[in-house]
Amino acid sequence: MKRIKTLKTRPMCVADGGCGECRTSCQSACKTSNGVANQSCENKEHIANRK
Amino acid sequence: MIHCFQAGGHNVVVDGNSGSIHICDDLTYDIIAFREGADAELALALVAESHPDITETELTGALAEISALVQSGQLYSAPPIEPEVIEERGQIHSGVVKALCLNVSHACNMRCAYCFAAKANGDGELMSFEVGKAALDFLIANSGHRRNLEVDFFGGEPLLNWEVVKRLVKYARSAEMAADKHFRFTLTTNGLDLTDEVLAFANREFQTVVLSLDGRKETHDRFRKLPDGTGSYVNVAKKISGFVKNRVGEYYIRATYTRENLDFVNDLTALNDLGFEYLSIEPVVCGANETYSLKDTDLNAILGEYDKLAEVLQKRKFNFYHFNLDLENGPCLNKRLSGCGSGSEYMAVTPDGGLYPCHRFVGDEKFIIGNVFEGVTRPDIVRQFASNNVFTNPECGECWAKLWCAGGCAANTYYASGNPGGIYKFGCELFKKRLEKAIQLAAGQ
Questions:
Q1: For each successive 10 residues of chain B (445 residues), what is the average pLDDT?
Q2: Cis omega (within 30 of 0) for bond into B155
Q3: Is the dihedral of CA B410, B414, B420, B423 positive or negative?
Q4: Are B206 and B189 in contact (CB under 8 A)?
Q5: C-alpha to C-alpha distance for B281 and B292, rounded to whole angstroms
């Protein structure tokens, strides 16, 4: 593409919805207003499969 | 469902359903932006007006690139899951509990005027080891196949019950191997009682330490006072600086902004000037009648401040918690649909063992879920929280940011709308702005 650069992102859909092993979003720094945008997947198998 | 915005010299198009983010040239950006709310023919007419010198070849090439993104499911994509599928499932969360906020101390050695916990924690009670142990046992017993379990030591001020905290960590470590679990601990503290001994223990055992410091001395001292009414900045800043200097592991300086410091970027830069590199600042949580509460009329100033912060981060290299964005390795779909899991995966425990949906609901008896000895006694409340997701909330439906926000904080929505599955519009605007800025910074990398 010459005109559009698409940032590399994780595909949104996971068949089983995910393993749930990642961190609970409110446990890290805010305690009052969090979303999940700043969270990371921690499933090594899923990460490896995406590479 | 797309969102187009221009920031930091970038033309950004976000495809909300797929999570794709495109950085466009002026022509493709205008074609996509004009197409929002207009038909394709009108969009092209508008493009022709704004790009009078465009050749047919250039236009054809631009349209082909846009078409390729549509074909590959990265633009104007369908939702990743149909709402009906979620409805059939009944709830997103599987019924396991994986995280607890342990209010180990409802006592505090400070008297911060804006503290949301102070009113709820009026009893000043400390959690006994027996209650804490029962909470950890409850967590293990209800965690199903989840291996990673999280416990935040919270308060009040948790360091006022430090010996119990240490015993609970020791107990959890002794239990995790047999149960095939891994505990991850967080400490949230005002910093006043930090010692070398706390530092050494925290470096060994705590994944994250969250330290409350509001920025400039005048900002901090305005609300964060000692019991004698004097400001705590001098004591706390010194303690926290010493702690962070020797901290091994993650920490965040967690500040609060109110109506009194809408120029809060100056507080973040003041913290950075002290050498702190991992920073977070949060909007105050309080009743609407408080003089320092954030008003709708403050919104534009606050949004502008996040713009300013993104500019500052071009020159200063500190980590701002809400601008962290893991694009390649972000959370899975379940998490994107339902967020923190409060009331189902995540609960708070009071010193007497009461279970609440999260730390923000503590003290509101309507929301007592059960207790750590008997377990959940109000499954109806758990079901209600577990069922909340971005598709059950019609106001989230058309929002481009919903799969990053995940519906937001249930407590914020409850206190704003009377419904934990409702909406907190002010918070929505803050979230979308922070996400735009995070994307802007990612686009610049």
A1: 95 95 96 82 86 93 95 92 74 81 96 85 88 98 95 96 98 96 97 98 97 98 96 98 98 97 98 98 93 97 98 96 91 86 94 96 95 97 89 86 92 91 92 97 91
A2: no
A3: negative
A4: no
A5: 16
Q: Which amino acid is at B271?
A: L
E-strand spans in B32-189?
Answer: 99-105, 148-155, 182-189
Q: Between A5, A32, A35, which is nearest B406 by CB?
A: A35
Residue in this structure with the two tokens 């490896």, named with its chain if needed: A48
A-proximal residues of B, 207-226, CB under 8 Å: 208, 210
pTM of the model: 0.95
Q: How far is CA B439 from the centre of its chain?
A: 16
Q: By three-state DSSP, how is residue B269 classified? A: helix
The DSSP bridge partners found for residue B189 are: B211
Q: 3-class secondary structure for B29-41?
A: HHHHHHHCCCCHH
Measure the CA–CA gap between B120 and B22, rounded to whole angstroms: 45
Under DSSP, is residue B166 helix (H, G, I), strand (E, B) or coil? helix
**Is residue B381 within 8 Å of residue B163, measured between CB atoms?**
no
- Interface contact B142, partner A, CB < 8 A: no
CB spacing of B346 vs A50 below 8 angstroms: no
Q: Three-state SS for B305?
A: helix
DSSP string computed for B246-262: T--SEEEEEEEE-GGGS
Determine how β-strand B2-7 pairs with β-strand B10-15.
antiparallel
Q: What angle do CA A26, B223, B302 make, to 5 degrees?
A: 60
**Amino acid code (one letter) for A29:** A
Angle, alpha carbons B287-B289-B293 (nearest 5°) = 65
CB–CB of B328 and A9 under 8 A?
A: yes
ipTM: 0.91
